[in-house]
């Protein structure tokens, strides 16, 4: 992707943010009455995460949040997206809130506001209280009802000072990696449960959005963050185009169908009919899920390339398996996934900024007039602290430059993108990959937990302060 040489500048109101999530950064897993979430259980189960890594300490953000906010302010960030740990606020997933838990987030938000950084709260970034999983987890309807209660508690506590709300982060991962391939907590491998989980996550979103609105000032914005996939066909063969339709339904339509249009795609219902009759969708559910949104969050890393399995010379290779032999894609044995050509990051994910442009334009068409945010985008590289105490990451700068330029092109093409949150503020617990994969703009030394802004953080801070992308070559 050639870098444009002319300066790339953004509207003055554009938000320049960074994102994190609770389990990946907080640590302090037993403090203030917090109880285990499914990720505590999963990461302490032998063989589930690289090196047996877990979030017990993570990057100790729970104790270092003041320094972390000060660092964001120094860099020049204008927004910060973080998530609330459900089991810190409501340890059993039910019943009264724990004030100590809520107080932590109140102090964090006040610190951000004092520094002029706009907070965006994600209510659920994958860390279901273990007790709710023990009662069946997301495949059970009850979990959605519990989520609505939790949303109301957090909305009441922070709604006066936080304007931007995100109900769920990437429900696809919760449903399909958590209950299908099993590479994410709770590690179940039950194809039919993935669709039940997806529906109850949708319902949680709808009920949660309603609950938030019932307790918050009307000026606040309620959104959801989807890891909507850009699904491309290997060829124009009708069989490959049918594979795209199938994966697009299972990745995107299963969520945006009910959320934006009030219905599951007919093609999805048909393609999955051998697994389920969808009788868990009750009267009124689709109406509940179809809540008007104030914004939509899009998380983007890499596009997917698919074909019919019969058109794959090496046989089907389903994506997202990780170390699991189970596919995250139910009823899709007839689809093969292919490696997209091009340079890749340390995750093995192909770098393709045009995918972000296409994704934004797709949702501009799918939901006309709905403000969009890129709520995650970033790259893992094998960063090293130099002898001079610096971290040079020109590859990450190039990645960010390319993707921010793609966002700018989408704005020029008529998309209403209001902000961008870099994933991630700092290196952290990369789920099943543990601490080995570094996504941070800020480097974390895992022995001392000292923070060092990488050259990409300084580059991004300059973009945030000036509204113009500095040249990518500048490291
Ligand atoms: C996000 O997940 C998460 O919200 C965040 O917590 C995480 O740290 C970050 O991204 C980086 O991973 O996996 O081979 O099938 C992104 C998860 C990544 C899942 C891309 C689908 C497709 C390629 N998604 N992935 S593969």
List keywords for this structure.
3-stranded mixed sheet, 15 helices, 13% strand, binds ligand GBH, 13 strands, TIM Barrel, 475 residues
Q: What's a concise summary of this model?
A:
39% of the residues lie in helices and 13% in strands.
The whole-angstrom Rg is 21 Å
Counted up, domains total 1
At the first level of CATH, what is the class?
Alpha Beta
Distance between the termini: 19 Å
Question: Would you write up a description of this structure?
Answer:
The chain is α/β, with parallel strands linked by helices and 475 residues long. It has one domain: Glycosidases (TIM Barrel). It is built from 15 helices and 13 strands. An 8-stranded parallel beta barrel has the order 1-2-3-4-5-7-10-11, surrounded by 5 helices. A hairpin with a 6-residue loop joins strand 12 and strand 13. It is globular and about 60 Å long. The model has no long low-confidence stretch (mean pLDDT 96). The protein binds ligand GBH. The site of ligand GBH has 16 residues, from loops. Belongs to the glycosyl hydrolase 1 family. Pfam families: Glyco_hydro_1. Keywords: Carbohydrate metabolism, Cellulose degradation, Glycosidase, Hydrolase, Polysaccharide degradation. GO terms for molecular function: beta-glucosidase activity.
Mind sketching the topology for me?
Layout: E1 15-19, H1 22-25, H2 38-43, H3 61-75, E2 79-83, H4 86-89, H5 99-114, E3 118-124, H6 130-134, H7 141-158, E4 164-169, H8 171-181, H9 191-215, E5 221-226, E6 231-233, H10 238-261, H11 266-271, H12 285-289, E7 296-299, E8 304-308, E9 335-338, H13 353-366, E10 372-377, H14 394-412, E11 417-423, E12 442-444, E13 451-453, H15 455-466
Helix pairs in contact: 3-5, 7-9, 8-9, 9-10, 13-14, 14-15
The protein binds ligand GBH.
Ligand GBH binds at residues 21, 24, 169-170, 173, 227, 299, 301-302, 319-320, 349, 376, 423, 430, 439.
